[in-house]
From TrEMBL:
GO biological process terms held by the UniProt record: cell wall organization; pectin biosynthetic process
Protein name: Hexosyltransferase
Entry's localization field: Golgi apparatus membrane
Any GO MF annotation of the entry: polygalacturonate 4-alpha-galacturonosyltransferase activity
Sequence similarity: Belongs to the glycosyltransferase 8 family.
Enzyme Commission numbers on file: 2.4.1.-
Pathway assigned in UniProt: Glycan metabolism; pectin biosynthesis
Main location (coarse class): Golgi
EC main group: transferase
UniProt cross-references to InterPro entries, sorted A to Z: GAUT, Glyco_trans_8, Nucleotide-diphossugar_trans
GO cellular component: Golgi membrane
Bilayer topology annotation: Single-pass type II membrane protein
Family annotation (Pfam families): Glyco_transf_8
Amino acid sequence: MKHWFDRNMYLEATVHVTDIEDHQKLSKDVDFHDMKLLRPAEEFRVTFRNHSQSFQKQTKTEYISTFGHSHFLLPDLLPNLNRVIVLDDDLIVQKDLSSLWNLNMGGRVVGAIQFCEVKLGQLKAYTEERNFDTDSCVWLSGLNVVEVKKWRDLHITSRYSQLLQKLQKDGVISFPLQVLPISLLVFQDLIYPLEDSWVQSGLGHDYGVSRIDIKKSATLHYNGVMKPWLDLGIHDYKDYWRKYMTSGEIFMTECNIH
C-alpha cells in the first residue's frame, strides 16, 4: 500500500498508511491471540429457511458484512481523532462524502446502512445472549461513520472483549464467526441509520441491482463472493469498478487486475 501511494496521488490529499503489526501497543482491553485474524472487515453468508413459504421461496441467502476484530482497535490506532469515516476494501466512492464529517448522529456511535432483510432474531443461533431486540434490523459495514470519542467514553472495546471472552468460554462458535453476533450486539441502540442513498450494497451477489440505483448512490459496495476483480464478478457491475483503476500501473498488471 505504501508503494502504491508513493507512485500515485489523488488531488492534494495527504495519505498516511499504517499497519496494525507496526503498533507495539495494541488495546489493553482485547487479547487477540492470532494477528492473522485482524482482518479489516468480515463477511458472512447466512441462509434462512421458511417452511411456510412455497418450496421455491423456502430458502433465502443474504450476505452480511460487519466490523472485523481489527475495528475494535480503532481508538488505539487513532488516539488523536474524534471521528473517522471507514471504507471497506470492496467499496468504491462515486460522489463527495465530505458532508459526513458534519453529520449529526444524535449521540450514536456508528453511522451505518440498515439491512432490514435480516433481523437480529434470525441470528439467535449464533449467540446465547437473549437480552436484545429480536426485531432490530441488522446493520452493514462498507461505509461507516464512527464517533471514536463516544466509543471511548462508552468503553465499547471493553464491552466487546467481555462478550468475546464469554463466547470463547462457551466454545460453541469458532473464533472467526464470533464477530458476527458480537458486532451486532455491542452496538445495540448505538447505530445511526444512514440514508440509503449513501450506499448501494449487493454488487457482489445480487444480479438485480438497477442502473438507476447504482447511478444515484454515493458509494457502491461489492459485498458478496463475486468481487469485481475476480473472473466470477458480475459482468454488468465491473465497469463501475474498472472506471477507477489506474491504467498502465505495474501493480495492476502483476495482480492480473484488468
